[in-house]
Structure formats: structure tokens, C-alpha cells
Amino acid sequence: MIILASASPRRKELLSKLVNDFQIIPADIDETPYALEKPDEYVVRMAREKAEAVASQHDLSHRAIVIASDTSVVLGESILGKPTDFEHAKSMLRALSGRKHQVMTSLCVCNAGLNRVATSNVISDVEFREISDLEIEHYWNTGEPADKAGAYAIQGLGGMFVKHISGSFSAVVGLPVYEVTQLLAEFGVSPLKEKIRE
């Protein structure tokens, strides 16, 4: 049994390309960064805490494997979370306009007993073109940026702002496919064998 510790439709879609059957149990944790916590430390901690919360708070089969992930848009040393309103999104997109930033997507895979825990952090560099205030307003009105880290979705309309990406596209979307495959293999799961059963 595989469990995705996330309600994200993007993560669900990406994982469905690798395994046929899995359950979704979103993790309910405090996602507030610690004082002076570095972005890379924060995203790894978030993925691990999500996985551990689901593994420990639910009555799972001992054979269950939990997958959790966390994505942060990072500009300098600042973590850009999800916007609270239009002005917040506008300030983030203005800051990203014409600049390079990093997208950090961490991954944690563990078994239900928590005696096997594996983590990974995928860092991708993303460069935006210049974005006008009018474009930002129109983009906000599409509804897409409202629940996205950094106020944009690379797989959606937000992709039109991306001039260049160096790294993992699937990680920027929310789940690093290569790393998921590698970690699942450590737990005895082969996506290729999974898909043969279809």
C-alpha cells in the first residue's frame, strides 16, 4: 500500500504516472519556518514531518509506504509561500520578475513503522522574464496563483513567465519523478513493474 501525504492535485497526477494504486491522506502539520531556518533545511523538515505525521497518526498496514513532499520558491534566502491576497501575490511576482530564483522540492519516503526513512531535496533554478503590473493583475484574475508557492504554476499559465529552467520540471510542479522512482526502488517498488499490470 502506498500513501501520498498530500491533497495536491499536481502531486496526485504525477504519482499516478508511476504507480497504479495509492491512497491520499493529507498531513496536518504546522508549516511555520523556524527562526533563522535555512530554506533547504525547512523544505526537508516539512516533507519529513508530513510523512511522519501520516505514518504515526493513522492505523496503517506495516507494509504501507508513505510519500510526502514539500515545495518552496526561494528568492535569495527568502521563502515565498502561497499568497494570502492579490497584493501579496503582486509583491512576490514583482520580486521574481526578470530574475532567477530557486525552487526547492523535498521528498520523504518512509514505512509505517518509521524505522526506514529516506529523504531527498531537488533544487531547480528558474529564470523569469520581465512581467508587467497589468500581466500580474490579469494572471491573478485567472485564479491560478492563489494556492501556489511563489504565486505561480509553471505547468499552467505561469509557464509563460519562465524564460529558462535548469533542473527538474516535475520537481517544480511539486513531485520530483526521478527521485520518487529512486526512493521507491529502495522500498522494493518498481514503477515499471507496477504499470505492466494495467
Would you kindly provide a written description of the structure presented here, covering whatever features stand out?
- The chain has 198 residues and is α/β, with parallel strands linked by helices.
- The chain has a single domain, classed as Maf protein.
- Helix content is 34%, strand content 24%.
- The protein contains seven helices and seven strands; from the N terminus they run βαβαββαββαβααα.
- Strands 1, 2, 3, 4, 5, 6 and 7 form a seven-stranded mixed β-sheet that branches.
- 36% of the residues are buried.
- The mean pLDDT is 94.
- It is an enzyme of class 3 (hydrolase).
- Keywords: Cytoplasm, Hydrolase, Nucleotide metabolism.
- Its cofactor is a divalent metal cation.
- Its EC number is 3.6.1.9.
- Belongs to the Maf family. YhdE subfamily.
Task: Looking at this protein, list some descriptive labels.
nucleoside triphosphate diphosphatase activity; alpha/beta; Maf-like; globular; Maf protein; 7 strands; EC 3.6.1.9; 24% strand; nucleotide metabolism; seven-stranded mixed sheet; cytoplasm
User: Roughly what fraction of the amino acids lie in strands?
Assistant: 15-25%
Q: Secondary-structure element order, as H and E?
A: EHEHEEHEEHEHHH
Largest sheet, strands/sense/barrel: 7 strands, mixed
Straight-line N-to-C gap: 17 Å
Helicity level: 25-40%
Please tell me how large the radius of gyration is: 17 Å
Secondary structural class: alpha/beta
Supply the CATH architecture. Alpha-Beta Complex
Poorly predicted ranges: none
Q: Can you count the helices?
A: 7
Instruction: Please give the CATH class.
Output: Alpha Beta
How many β-strand runs?
A: 7
In the residues, how many domains can be counted?
1
CATH topology: Maf protein
The whole-number mean of residue pLDDT values reads 94
Overall 3D form: globular
